[in-house]
Amino acid sequence: MKSQKFILNLLVIFLTSSIASVYAQTRDITLEDIWSGEFSQERMQSLQSLKDGKSYIVQDYDRASQDMKVDIYSYKTGEKTGTLISSKAIPGLSIFQTFQLSNDETKVILGTNVESIFRRSTRGIFYVYDLESKELVKIDEEKIQSPTFSPEASKVGYVKNNNIFYKDLETNSIVKVTTDGVKNEIINGVTDWVYEEEFSFVRAFEWNPSGTKLAYLKFDEKNVPEFSMDLYGNYGQSLYPKQEVFKYPKAGEENAKVSLHLFDLNSKTNSAIELDDYEYLPRLEWTQDEDLFSIQTLNRYQNELKLYLVNAETNQPKLVLTEKDNAYVDVSDDLTFLNNNSFIWTSEKDGWKHIYHYSEDGSLINQVTDGAWEVTNFYGFDDMSGRIYFQSTENGSVNRDVYSVLANGKNKLRLTRKTGTHRADFSADFTYFVNTFTNTKTPAVYTLLKASNGELVREIKDNSALQNKLDNYNLSPKELSTINVNGNELNTWMIKPPNFNPEKTYPILMFQYSGPGSQSVSNTFFGTNDYWYQMLAQQGYVVACVDGRGTGYKGRDFKKVTQKELGKYELEDQISAAKLFGAKAFIDADRIGIWGWSYGGFMASNAMFQANDVFKAAIAVAPVTSWRFYDTVYTERYMTTPQENASGYDDNSPITHVGEFDKGNFLLVHGSADDNVHVQNTMQLIEALVQANKQFDWRIYPDKNHGIYGGNTRLHLYTLMTNFIKENL
Questions:
Q1: Phi, psi (5° rounding) for residue 304?
Q2: Is the whole model's pTM more than 0.85, yes or no?
Q3: Which of 46, 149, 276, 557 is at 20 to 30 A from 128, Cα to Cα?
Q4: Run of H or E residues at 460
Q5: pLDDT in tens, 274-329
Q6: Which of 581, 620, 613, 614 lies closest to 599 in space, CA to CA?
């Protein structure tokens, strides 16, 4: 017995010391961990399918040899099968940043010295490299925008100094398509600031299938008011700030006058296409027919979208489809023309976003998908199988799955299995798709699946190394649930302290974005902010998020209830949710905070000013403080104009409510070079707070845009916010 007791004692010592060792290994997260990339996930490199559907290409930089390459891989095996492009093998080109293959995959456009303009636009020096002859040709001596091959790869269209050009690769000659382009007056072939930001495209010219015609948009922005901002530069670089001036139409102000044009390469002639009354031309696309292209128009309210087919021989447009909504109609990239010029279209007209099939004349063939769920991504149509591939919320609004269905709406197949978020990247012939899967417990897992049935072909990458690393940290689960607020079941997540004790009380920080159609609560793994929330949880805070009315993926009516009243219902839901949280035994109702960025900053400001009996502290980063200061396209889509809806603008503006800011703590942050939500928003709010004699904290980050990043900027910002929370919540 004595020896057995001795052995038991040794076992107890061993077990307790092992447990202690495990606990000693786990540690809390620091801000330095977060911003050092300690928790970065391995990601699939951006791949592009080759037209054979069996291979894909990936751009990769070999630092050792300083060689930029585009390598070829097999979908089925994942093995490298060759190199398509190597900068070391191209005399006269030491490096390239971007590449774009021609349709026939015989030539490639290579970009060098590429610089950003705004969110999506760039300019640079570009070359055409012939993969067969190995000949390298510079497209233009100056920096250009949006170089694009003609379909047969004999020409390259591009924009320089607001004019459209094309280079004939057979004769090495350059033809000027337009001549009237002038900065801040006339733009040809690329979009203005507001189209780039709100309609999400830059290149505004399109080749016809035979490369004999160019359809393009012209922007006359002479009457659009200018916005200017100072850029200060680094200390010692300049004694005087540089001023950036660009056209920015604010709500209720004049937009650029946009017109549709057609250039015939054979006759070298331009012609204007006359359309019925419209304000915006948000999409331009050719059909499979070389003499037939489509143009979409929107009225200024954006509640009536029209689809025209234009005969490129007669220049006559024909109206084939009109989409109306009492609130607004979303513009998408889902329009797809089939071989017979029938087309796929998505619409919310039955209350949920679904897929429809129309004939060339605009008559409905059939509704392809239906149900109380939404199509969230249209991946394409396979001519061979007759199947449509899409992503949807059929398995719950916080989840995403990939499906296929016949064009007649029959024989729908779910191609993904696990509950969470699936995203697909299909091969050109729809033989395979790379599936990216994640949920709250699983970092991105990449697999190759058969498009026909979702069968696993091979595992690509599982991020197990990150998962193992995270086991060394004192993390809490991200709990998804719903709460009943103002008659609606709202999606929410919550992160509790790792040593959570339901008998104790904790302060709570609420995050939200709240913008129309957005989603902040989803069944996905940690983003960067989630690690920050884990850090706060380790310091004794509960962190939560609620997607209120106006957010997306729960049907048209839920999303569009905020029409003409941005900030009203969203604020009601955040206040009610905060009260529900505060009623929980483990939440200290006197220590509730809220924060957000951009639209979320607008909401956090309103929460602090209008509900400081509920919220003790708020942080607003890059907030809109009056929708009068924001652009026409976004703002008027939801609010109409200030002239028509003054009360909707002013009643929900934080500036209007500074007098109600009687208690609590408020931190206001902005970047001085924010071309999107101008720092004017914050300056106007600061002045209102000063004149109302309200004390608050604020920080301006010089020369930083809407993202407020670069160097140590993000570390500095999150240190500021962390200290503010610890001191005031």
A1: -140, 110
A2: yes
A3: 46
A4: strand 456-461
A5: 999 999 999 999 999 999 999 999 999 999 999 999 999 999 999 999 999 999 99
A6: 620
